[in-house]
Amino acid sequence: MLALPALALVGATPLAAATTDALEQRIAELQAELEQAKRELADARMTLETVCPDEAGRCPEPVKAKPEADKITLGPLTVGGAIRANYVNGDYPGGGSGPSRGGNGGNFELDVFRINVDLNYENIVGKLEYRWYDGYNFLHTGWVGYNFDNGSQVQVGVNRVPFGPGAYGVSQSWFFDQHYYLGLADDMDVGIKYVTSIGDWDLDFAYYARSEWNGNGTSEDSARYSYDSVIWESALDADGNVIGAAPNGYEERNQFNIRAIYGLDDIAIPTEIGVSLQYGQLHGRRADDGDHWAASVHMKNSWNNWLLATQLTRYKFNIDDDNLLGTDELIPMGAFDFAWPAATDAWVPAVSLSYLYQANRIPWLDSVRPYVEYSSIVKEDSSFNDSELFVLGAAWARQGWYIYTDAAWSNGNYFVGSKGDNYSNILDGVGDFGANGNDRWNFRFNINFGYYF
């Protein structure tokens, strides 16, 4: 009992006060170090997005970042880029008025050349990316942002819409999954995005005034990287026949996005569970205005080098039937200088299973990630056939090289197999994301060679 008064007396001594001051000072130092670590983490995430070499910037996890000495630095700016070539073989016919991406079957051809510029000056950050394809070019990314001391970040400009389990949905393949072709994965729009973390939660809030700008190409409104509802040049009569040039369609306006992902790291299989919500308006060209929404639940499970990603999305475009297609069940969606109808009301399930192998004993290979993926557009219109995509492949990484080898099967994706490539087939929806009138499986083998600098 005598110990308690004694301890009280000791606690009041100058030595104890000095110790308390030292502890408080140490706590302040640790807090400062934590804030600095958060800033470095934000910078590292941006750098990772820059150096990871694939279709949109993704890379296997973990990845060895290229030394900055390999890039051109101009003060706070870092300049890089990529050049890619593609080989295609399979049922994809090439030519015609169909999508130009992918080229002619059995041939090598230039896929894309791109320039990347990254800004990192104190807390000010930014990204710029411009791409050139065969016959068209466009701005892919262009934003300026600020890294806050608490690890949060704001981006203003053409930036990636927060929707789904990650920047690229569930997919690891060159083809992505069906979310991408509906503007629900790796979608770039013009607006402001705020990214933050609270405990185990990663949160994104965004507002987009419009979709990204149309670039330079032959289409009315589809010289762009990501899929959006777009304007078409031609109008049709009730039988699907072209009746003249009369631009029509829909433009995206005033879109809001919220995404929340909760991380469970202290369990046997680390898991990220999330939800994404999206709502926006549609401005009709020669048709009444409409709106669109999408809601998604998604999850990523990691075990050793295995990664399982799953997603289920419900989306709907609310438009009237007084438009160029004469129906409210189809809406033109465009990218890569080509537009084609997609179903306005559907579910999208998607799953991807991959394994990352670090090739430490193979001198010519850093890593390889084999994967198997499946996704589908399950349409609410009972007269439409679903659009399915199955991909089996691998991504190979070696220093600045990144190579995709993919075997894809689909009965409703016009980058795989036959497609309706003239306006008279629009309402039949041959081989596409709309009616999918032929409901026929097709095959495509694809190799994409990319060098990133």
Topology:
Blueprint: H1 3-11, H2 14-51, E1 72-74, E2 77-90, E3 108-121, E4 124-133, E5 136-147, E6 153-160, E7 188-198, E8 201-211, E9 228-229, E10 231-236, E11 242-264, E12 271-285, E13 290-303, E14 306-318, E15 330-335, E16 338-343, E17 345-355, E18 357-358, E19 367-379, E20 387-398, E21 401-410, E22 442-452
Antiparallel strand pairs: 1-2, 2-3, 2-22, 3-4, 4-5, 5-6, 6-7, 7-8, 8-11, 9-15, 10-11, 11-12, 12-13, 13-14, 14-17, 15-16, 17-19, 18-19, 19-20, 20-21, 21-22
Structural commentary:
With 453 residues, this protein is mainly beta. The protein has one domain: Porin (Beta Barrel), CATH 2.40.160. The chain has two helices and 22 strands. A 16-stranded antiparallel β-barrel has the order 2-3-4-5-6-7-8-11-12-13-14-17-19-20-21-22.
Numbering strands along the chain, what is their spatial order in the largest sheet?
2-3-4-5-6-7-8-11-12-13-14-17-19-20-21-22
Number of helices: 2
Please bin the fraction of helical residues.
10-25%
Run of helices and strands: HHEEEEEEEEEEEEEEEEEEEEEE
Spatial separation of the terminal alpha carbons: 73 Å
Total domain count: 1
Count of beta strands = 22
Query: What is the C-alpha radius of gyration, as a whole number of Å?
Result: 25 Å
**Helix/strand/pairing category:** mainly beta
Would you tell me the overall average pLDDT?
A: 83
User: What is the CATH level 1 assignment?
Assistant: Mainly Beta
CATH superfamily: Porin
